[in-house]
Amino acid sequence: AKNIQIYLVSIVIFTSATPLLSAPYKIILPMLCVIGLYVIDSKVSFKSISDIFGILLIFFILVVLGLSVDLLNNDLSLSLKTPVFFLGILTGFFLACKVDRETIMECNEKLVIIMLLVGVPAFILFLYFPNVIVSFFSYEYGGYTSKTIGFLNIHTSDNWISSRYSGFASEPGLLSTYICLALYSRTVKNYGNIDKYSMLMILAIFLSKSTAGIISMLFILLINLNRKQLLLYLFLLVFFSVYSDIATYQLENKLIGSTYFTERFQHYMYLVNMDISTLVLGNGDIKFTEVLIPSQQAGWGSILQITQRYGLLLLFTLLALLIYSNIRRP
Questions:
Q1: Per residue in 192-210, pLDDT tens?
Q2: Residue 246 confidence (pLDDT) above 80
Q3: CB-facing half-sphere around the CA of 104: CA atoms within 13 A
């Protein structure tokens, strides 16, 4: 039963990351996995069943609010993305009710290690021999046709090919989230020692060139590593960053004054120009899709997108429910 549980949870994690599945499958497949977990064992990992009902009640109110905003802002039209969005969150909640966080972290760690063992060498091969990309399969994501071999996705557009490592995820920033979680659990498990798999994770985060990923990784190493190892690895990390194009990439694309920073900042400035009711309740998904995306005012990150779609009220309530759920879990 334990092996089946690990297998099902790993499928949910992979499904949440991959861009190779369309929206219906990214919801249906995790739902089937969660149902399978309850079929194996109906016990839940919350301290109190009343907590579950309380969270579900608040969540139901959020669903009604989100659907109402969508309807009122779009002449009583409703986007299917809105109920699917909430269904996805609800599926994750029932997964958290069933599986303890240690098991989820273990599944994520094993999945990340397997994907990196095959993905990182393949990506390095691609960097030296970019023509191998012609043998990759094509897939559509974010309005572009990109290339994949399942465990390695390469973003492409016209004659442009990304040199950032996305691995099995839809984009480098998302991949670094899974890797950082795996790195945290790995270093804790090894009592602050770095092993070959941790080194592979560190290399993968650098190859992703994700600013948030690199910062999170440094923080994880700072709080988890033994003091003797910490100074050595921080030195190696700084050395690797300076004597590679990673530092140059961060300076040119992520810092204040760069073109990409200006574009990201303008998306957040849109919130300042919103009236208070829209800021609190959002625009709804239809207006977000038909107005904000074409006018290039739509945010790139999930937090900003949720705020623009459903407002700060829903965002902060979801975050509060997430924190409360973690507190009430054993």
A1: 888 999 999 999 998 898 8
A2: no
A3: 17
148: β partners: 137, 153
What integer is the mean pLDDT of 279-292?
A: 83
* Poorest-pLDDT segment among 13-22, 58-67, 189-198: 58-67
SS (H, E, C) the chain: CHHHHHHHHHHHHHHHHCCCCCHHHHHHHHHHHHHHHHHHCCCCCCCCHHHHHHHHHHHHHHHHHHHHHHHHHCCCCCCCHHHHHHHHHHHHHHHHHHCCHHHHHHHHHHHHHHHHHHHHHHHHHHHHCHHHHHHCEEEEECCEEEEECCCCEECEECCEECCCCCCCCCCHHHHHHHHHHHHHHHHHHCCCCCCHHHHHHHHHHHHHCCHHHHHHHHHHHHHHCCHHHHHHHHHHHHHHHHCCHHHHHHHHHCCCCCHHHHHHHHHHHHHHCCCHHHHHHCCCHHHHHHHHCCCCCCCCCHHHHHHHHHHHHHHHHHHHHHHHHHHHCC
Measure the CA–CA gap between 100 and 182, rounded to whole angstroms: 16
Amino acid present at 290: E
- The pair phi, psi for residue 160, each rounded to 5°, is -100, 135
Q: 116 with 152: CB under 8 angstroms?
A: no
Instruction: Quote the pLDDT of residue 191.
Output: 86
Rounded to 5°, the CA angle 113-201-100 comes to: 55
- For the entire predicted model, the pTM comes to 0.84
- What token pair was written down for 62? 């959020």
Average predicted confidence (pLDDT) for the chain? 83
Provide the token pair at 205.
């985060």
Residue at token pair 């442009």: 160
